[in-house]
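Technical annex, item 7. During the second reporting period the consortium partners agreed on a shared format for inverse folding records so that results from different sites could be compared directly. Each record opens with the tokenized structure and is followed by the designed sequence. A conforming record, contributed by the partner at site C, is shown below for reference.
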């Protein structure tokens, strides 16, 4: 990685104290954040349609037919999206910790960052408890409080520690996959059982589906129970998420996320990520066409998926290279989505929960497999790609970004572009 140490420019440091002007924004960060927020929906979508136990308990037969469409839909999600976009967003969250908080010696900016993380936690509790159990905002808030203590580390140290943590847990995961395939009855990539708090019997799964389908308040109670379990389970992910945040912060300080690293660095990471993705796709394709609960790859499908951050960095390298070599018009469409990432993330929940289990929606819960669900995901993507630039043509930031910023600063900040110009 490039050895140069990038510190935030004066404009970037001052930006959090008021609306961020277009000239102050870093295009590649907005672009990658938009890519991440769209990709996250592809993974989260199934948890809006089915109870979490369906994906978390090994051996459960899906209530939908594993025909060609559903097999392909699940394969696409598992290979190209699962864990890759959560990793991307975690890395970018690490960048934002540094951009907002600056160096540890800056007490004023540290106080601002702590306030920002506090309100993020409040949003997370409301989002998870009232709308969707899979909220990650609360997890990011308390991980951020830990990572912010290391934000003054040099780029090299951040990259070594962050990458080292994720390599360690990747190796542990890969070893567990191989051991399960060899001694645990062939779970491999699908093995999730054994002490998992989401493990249920088929009868309990059917009861949960029925509760969601019955509407409020049963659906709300099911969501609240799942949220409480997930928040407890998420505590063990602190080193992984924190490691990704440190890695992202280090990549920013090195200039990687700004497109300042040498071309050969991006090409090398792209090749490594593509190789991992190719192996993952091949082994997952074999596993997807095996009888349910069997893994003919001997655990190699799971091993290939244990190093998702490498694929994530490969994705980032590809998009940065596209931007560098004349394809910026293709990547530019992602930037408005990224500038409104907080609004778009929560809007995804509002749309999906409305469609599948909220009392005011059509109650589609439990009625759609992975194949058909891709149509819903594509429609939400299209909507967010359209409304984000339209909103930003009038306003300086997304509506929820504005609320978050007002709460953080304890005062009203301008929202309309005209009011900013007038000020």
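Designed sequence (site C submission):
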């Amino acid at each position: 990685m490039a050895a140069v140490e990038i510190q935030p420019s004066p404009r970037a440091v001052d930006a959090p104290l008021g609306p961020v002007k277009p000239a102050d924004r870093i295009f590649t960060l907005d672009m990658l954040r938009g890519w991440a927020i769209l990709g996250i929906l592809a993974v989260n979508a199934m948890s809006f349609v089915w109870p979490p136990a369906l994906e978390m308990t090994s051996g459960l037969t899906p209530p939908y037919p594993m025909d060609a469409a559903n097999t392909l839909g699940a394969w696409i999600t598992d290979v190209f999206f699962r864990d890759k976009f959560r990793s991307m967003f975690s890395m970018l969250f690490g960048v934002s910790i540094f951009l907002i908080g600056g160096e540890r010696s800056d007490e004023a900016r540290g106080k601002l960052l702590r306030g920002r993380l506090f309100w993020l936690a409040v949003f997370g509790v409301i989002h998870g408890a009232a709308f969707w159990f899979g909220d990650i905002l609360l997890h990011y808030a308390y991980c951020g409080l830990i990572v912010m203590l290391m934000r003054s580390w040099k780029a090299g140290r951040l990259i070594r520690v962050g990458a080292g943590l994720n390599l360690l847990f990747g190796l542990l995961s890969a070893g567990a996959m191989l051991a399960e395939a060899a001694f645990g009855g062939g779970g491999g990539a699908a093995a999730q059982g054994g002490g998992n708090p989401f493990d249920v019997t088929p009868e309990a799964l059917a009861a949960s589906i029925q509760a969601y389908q019955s509407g409020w308040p049963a659906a709300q109670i099911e969501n609240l129970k799942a949220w409480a379990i997930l928040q407890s389970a998420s505590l063990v992910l602190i080193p992984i998420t924190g490691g990704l945040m440190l890695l992202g912060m280090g990549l920013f300080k090195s200039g990687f996320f700004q497109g300042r690293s040498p071309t050969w660095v991006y090409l090398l990471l792209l090749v490594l990520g593509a190789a991992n993705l190719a192996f993952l796709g091949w082994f997952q394709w074999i596993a997807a066409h095996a009888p349910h609960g069997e893994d003919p790859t001997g655990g190699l499908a799971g091993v290939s998926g244990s190093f998702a951050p490498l694929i994530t960095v490969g994705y980032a390298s590809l998009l940065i290279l596209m931007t560098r070599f004349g394809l910026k018009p293709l990547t530019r469409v992602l930037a408005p989505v990224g500038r409104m990432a907080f609004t778009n993330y929560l809007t995804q929940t509002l749309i999906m929960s409305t469609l599948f289990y909220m009392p005011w929606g059509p109650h589609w819960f439990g009625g759609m497999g992975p194949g058909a669900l891709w149509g819903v995901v594509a429609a939400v993507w299209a909507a967010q790609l359209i409304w984000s630039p339209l909103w930003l043509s009038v306003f300086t930031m997304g509506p929820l970004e504005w609320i978050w910023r007002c709460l953080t600063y304890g005062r009203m900040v301008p929202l309309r572009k005209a009011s900013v110009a007038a000020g």
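The mean pLDDT is 89. The chain has 20 helices and no strands. All partners now use this format for quarterly exchanges.
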